[in-house]
Design brief:
single chain; 756 residues; alpha/beta; Nucleotidyltransferase, domain 5; Actin, Chain A, domain 4; six-stranded mixed beta sheet; 21 strands; 11% strand; elongated
């Protein structure tokens, strides 16, 4: 039924039962299974042609669309033929003869389907050979078995069709099929004729016809099309399908299956919708991850599930018991190995203890010689090994007994040999003195570092004290300063991330600068303005700053700076959270990144590795409104023209107030894309802004947007106006193929009887 909208009020329209709601659950978007309609079933030859249609010469109605072809007799309620408007050359293998096939007669052979073409180039019919094939097939299916087609033909053509296209169409019908008369008219006018709220012959309104490659608009006053005010925007269903397909390919570059044009068309009709009011406000609303998830629809593509063997409870228990048994064996093996190592260490300690007893029983030279025979160069090395063995055995025994390891007391090391002159030391003691000197240098360095840390801690405490005093004096100023530093730090981190992302793109400025630095290092001569003199010494590396180029290439500086920046950022946020009541967790860097991650997850979640079904899913959210928005903002699709609302407003402003009121009472929308939900509400929103308050604006969608043009032609063929509108053979012979008789719903170019 038509949708009548009260003057300048909100609309509540349900087209084909489609809901504007995006989800049935706030956390789980609905899953829609992909269901592309199959091809039209076989159409048999009409058997009652001679009895039903031939005696009265019932007009033949042909809706020749760029996508679908519909044909039948004017006395029927619905068209007998509804097929895709496709023609394909097919070679019969038995007879080796080429055959032209049309509509649903195309075989399922992949080669034949890939060669199928429409007789149309955009919205213009340009292929006479294809149309002749379509007419032959149509008239045969309608049961016409004569040498000529002795019926008037009513046929659609695009608004402002080129004369050349009409010329070969008339030549085919009059010359090849000898039809007695023909009538051409735009499909949008016939759709309004079928849906007229008043007498069709005196209907007023504006036709908005969504076609395959364009969208046409023209006013109708008193049943007569005002083609001098007709407008067209070069955006139709094909552009909408292509745009959605590009968005899907950009969003899922690695999708496991190919998304076809037919599947994209199904998604456009099933999942997309027009925003009822402002598109910008809707996009801002979807910046909330929860609302974006609620608005999402998931398209499930078909896939072949991998067969997974289901185990019984007994088999699962048996596998679990095997895992537990393997774990016990592993624990026992580890305990046995630890015990064997402990016994080996105890044996070694006992042997070294007995070896140590020889130190008091013999001279020192003999003792050192004995140590050397056992693999020790010095006595200090021997004592170090013994101490390590004792510590390891003690630790193992305490761990076995479940006791905690005591914390050793840190005593400052002693270096007794450093105060003794080398002349009083033996050769071995001189070597030991060198080691003690190195050990003391290391100990002194650690002490200096510790002292520096203590001084740094004291300076930090002093800065914190001064900062606390500043906070007590001026909390607002202190907070503002930290917030500015917080924003600057976040901008710095974001800039570094952008730079890292740019390095992955070899065409980016950052990547080119990096390659330039590498090339400059590898070149024999520098790339600067002055070349190095021949045989001059290369002084690279003499300055410590020269080596920074390697850190720049590797990105080490960025890594170090990133750690420092995050530490500083965390410290600033901790202070603000503790002392500034206006700064909460939602303003922290982590919270902002979490919101961004949540928004990305709601926009396109990463499927789980073991979930095959989610791998074959496409999440449609912003695409659902962005693609239909192209009709109101064609720049989204790269089309440089005004939008639908702006063009309609221009048409209405070209009429006087009385005529404008007559027109806005019946804004008729038709065509395949007009079935996308939300179009009447959006048109009402766009037009109401330029109309006076209380204007009787009414948007009327077609009852059946796909068949109403055919229904309107059939309805018109049963009226007395038909005979006064037909172009007869005599007129064709006199005026030529480009001309036709002017009638109130037809195109003006090439029409005889229109006062230019």
């Amino acid at each position: 039924m038509p949708v009548a909208v009260p003057p300048n009020t909100a609309m509540d329209v349900d087209i084909n039962g489609a809901s504007a709601s995006g989800s049935t659950s706030p956390f789980e978007p609905p899953i829609v299974s992909l269901s592309v309609p199959s091809s039209t079933p076989y159409i048999p030859v009409l058997g009652n042609y001679r009895e039903e249609y031939y005696p009265d010469r019932v007009p033949i109605i042909i809706d020749n669309g760029a996508t679908n072809f519909r044909a039948g007799f004017g006395k029927d309620d619905d068209p007998y033929i509804i097929v895709d408007n496709l023609v394909s050359k097919y070679r019969d293998r038995k007879t080796n003869t080429p055959v032209l096939l049309f509509g649903n007669e195309l075989p399922d052979d992949a080669t034949t389907r890939s060669n199928a073409k429409s007789p149309f180039d955009g919205d213009i019919c340009v292929n006479p050979e294809g149309m002749e094939t379509a007419f032959d097939w149509t008239f045969i299916k309608l049961g016409i078995d004569d040498d000529k087609v002795d019926h008037p033909v009513i046929m659609t053509e695009r608004m402002a069709t080129p004369l050349a296209s009409r010329a070969f169409m008339s030549e085919l019908l009059f010359e090849a099929y000898s039809v007695p008369s023909v009538l051409y008219g735009p499909d949008g006018y016939f759709s309004m004729y079928a849906n007229a709220p008043t007498a069709p012959s005196t209907v007023d309104g504006v036709v908005v016809s969504f076609n395959t490659q364009s969208t046409s608009m023209w006013p109708v006053l008193g049943g007569e099309a005002q083609m001098n005010q007709a407008r067209r925007i070069p955006l139709g269903g094909t552009q909408g399908i292509d745009l959605l397909l590009k968005y899907v390919q950009l969003k899922y570059p690695g999708f496991p299956t190919r998304v076809t044009q037919a599947q994209a068309a199904w998604m456009l009709q099933t999942c997309c919708e027009f925003t009822p009011t402002s598109y910008i406000e809707k996009v801002r609303e979807l910046s909330d991850p929860l609302k974006l998830r609620q608005f999402t629809k998931i398209v499930q593509f078909p896939f072949v599930a991998v067969a997974v063997q289901q185990l019984t409870e007994e088999e699962l228990d048996r596998q679990a018991e095997k895992r537990r048994e393997a774990g016990r064996r592993l624990q026992e093996t580890s305990a046995r190995i630890r015990l064997e190592k402990l016994i080996e260490k105890e044996n070694n300690l006992e042997y070294y203890t007995k070896l140590r007893e020889w130190r008091d029983k013999e001279k020192r030279s003999s003792w050192l010689a004995r140590l050397e025979d056992h693999g020790f160069e010095t006595e200090a090395e021997f004592e170090s090994v013994v101490r390590k063995l004792e510590a390891a055995i003690t630790t193992a025994r305490r761990k076995e007994a479940g006791l905690e390891e005591p914390v050793p007391d840190e005593a400052p090391p002693t270096f007794p040999l450093l105060d003794r002159p080398d002349s009083d030391l033996t050769e071995e003691e001189v070597k030991e003195k060198r080691k003690q000197r190195l050990m003391k240098a290391g100990y002194d360095a650690r002490m200096r570092v510790r002292a520096e840390k203590e001084r740094e801690g004291e300076r930090r405490r002093q800065v914190e004290k001064e900062e606390e005093e500043e906070r007590d004096r001026d909390l607002k100023g202190w907070s503002s300063k930290l917030k500015r530093e917080h924003e600057a730090m976040m901008d710095k981190i974001k800039g570094r991330k952008r730079k890292q992302a740019a390095l992955s793109d070899r065409k980016s400025m950052a990547a080119q600068q990096r390659m330039r630095s590498i090339a400059n290092l590898a070149a024999d001569t520098p790339t600067g303005g002055k070349r190095r003199k021949r045989n001059a010494e290369d002084m690279f590396g003499e300055n410590d700053d020269d080596w920074a180029i390697y850190r720049k290439i590797q990105g080490a500086e960025d890594e170090d700076d990133e750690e420092d920046d995050f530490s500083r950022l965390e410290a600033i946020e901790s202070k603000l959270l503790a002392h500034d009541p206006t700064f909460d967790l939602s303003l922290t860097y982590a919270a902002r990144e979490n919101r961004r991650a949540a928004l990305l997850d709601a926009f396109r979640p990463i499927p789980a590795e073991n979930d095959l079904a989610s791998t074959y899913q496409i999440w449609l959210n912003t695409e659902r409104i962005r693609v239909p928005e192209a009709w109101f903002n064609p720049s989204i699709a790269g089309v440089d023209c005004a939008g639908l609302g702006e063009v309609l407003t221009g048409i209405l402003k070209s009429f006087g107030e009385d005529e404008r009121v007559r027109l806005i009472r019946n804004i008729h929308v038709t065509g395949g894309p007009s079935q996308i939900p939300g179009l009447p509400e959006r048109l009402h929103y766009e037009l109401a802004q330029s109309l006076p308050f209380g204007a009787p604006l009414t948007i009327r969608p077609a009852k059946d947007a796909r068949l109403d043009a055919w229904h309107g032609m059939a309805q018109f063929s049963r009226t007395a106006d038909l005979q006064n509108s037909l172009t007869t053979r005599e007129m064709y012979n006199e005026w030529g193929p480009e001309r036709m008789k002017a009638w109130k719903g037809g195109n003006w170019p090439g029409a005889i009887g229109i006062d230019d």
